[in-house]
Please model this.
Amino acid sequence: MARAPLLQLSDIALTFGGNPVFEGLNLVLQPGDRVALVGRNGSGKSTLMKVMAGLVEADRGRRLVSPGVSVGYMEQHPDMTGFATLGDFAASGLAPGEEYRVGMAAEGLKFAPETAVGAASGGERRRAALARLLAEAPGLMLLDEPTNHLDIEAIAWLERQLTETRTGFVLISHDRAFLKALTRATLWIDRGVVRRREQGFAGFADWRDKIWAEEDEARHKLNRKIKSEARWAVEGISARRTRNQGRVRALQALRAERTAMIRRQGAAAMALDEGGKSGKRVIEAAEITKAYGDKLVLRPFSLRVLRGDRVAFVGPNGVGKTTLLQMLTAELAPDGGSVTLGTGLQLAVFDQNRAGLDPDASLWDTLAGDPEIGVTGKADQVMVRGVPKHVVGYLKEFLFSDAQARAPVRSLSGGEKARLMLARIMARPSNLLVLDEPTNDLDIETLDLLQEILGDYPGTVLLVSHDRDFIDRVATSTVAMEGDGCAVVYAGGWSDYRVQRGADAADKALAKPVAKPAVADKPTSRSRDKGLSFIEKHRLERLPAEIERMEAEIGKLTEFLSDPELFGKAPAKFEKASAALVERQAALAAAEEDWLTLEDRAGAG
Model:
């Protein structure tokens, strides 16, 4: 017997500011659906998700949710008015006794539930909103960019949770590896049309390109037919045209059909302004260290960066990736050791906090008023790759409209701010590019273009990112920062780092790095102690805390399940808690086995 759909949208029409967003949209989401929702920035992805959630009312059409189905939406900017802490907000929709779910989600997403709402950053608020959704476990989850502000470890945790859930979900994300791992169907919004394909995101690019090729062929055939019919209309005699008014009307209909065709928006015309050639040796860091009070950020670390290298920096949030970048570019002095910069360097920086953008300045002034690219004496021109361009024309190359040129920066979306930052740095001559979280908020097509540009860039790139796919496509070496001041260099991108590190998807099998990574740290006494590699020793040090945490979670779940009336009152909650208990017990057994294995090896060493 077929199950009722979770959600159904029928004949949905929606208009914003006189422009139609959707017209005649029909959509059905079934139990167990795992759907990627993709499209360019501004195509209406978030709007469609809010229509699904019932937060935006359509001008026409019906939204139907099956009886007993709850729909949960992860808010991008959650309203926490009236809540004292992030934990209070995240647990507000839970029944008494289920608050433990928030603690489990907070552990994986890496935020402190006791943090006061007023002191929380935007990223912490988003993580609390995500924890709230996961803890509530609705019948349908709507996730709008859940990986933004998550580090790679938290992304991996979330990926495991969504892999194991039976709940249907719709997912918007710029993280291609995340989408490929989780989705089984794809919704693509393109010029107001929503198409569905019963395959996950992995095959999206080929599907999109095939549809576009078919459109181009149809447009080409239509243009040829119009040209042929127009020639007949011009060359035919008057009497003949009189007898063939139907054919004339058909020509008019063909022209109307061509006018109605909505042409695709071109890709952003991004290109880097190559500066002069730098010296072969770009950065030489020797035994550099850094600490803030009692917090050790970096143990003695050495790195040589040569011209043309693409070095990625990965690790948990707060581990010190940006601090290391600042030391390598001489913006920040190390406590010990030395950093020597090469000759002829021209630096361009993409700041993850967009600190270089004045929210009250217009896009026009942001570019034309920049002393590095604004043309002296010309308030409406910027110098781009040695050629003066009108500021509006240059903004159009990055897909901004005429109307946006005079709008304030604060009116832009996250993706638009990222494109504006790229417009600034790409107009500046550079041979050393520092990109700190450039992938946040960019749509997939812009990410593809940025990757191609970096591939052709003759200069050197230092990259901080949590986007595993992007790192794989760009990096030639990876610096892994895993806490406790440890930084190790590996050859290749993210996948190469994982292979060399010897880690499986659950981070259980840890091995020594390859004997000769592309650029290697000098071994320390810590990495030689007790016959263990540094990472194995670090794992051994962390395991007792992990075991203690899992034992506490098992205790909470056991106490929750001890209620003899629970199964009768809430069988679904009983089933979910039972499954969680089995999963935690298996994880605890694996962690204890890891600890025994590493402890034995340490003793043998």
Remarks:
- The two ends are 62 Å apart (CA to CA).
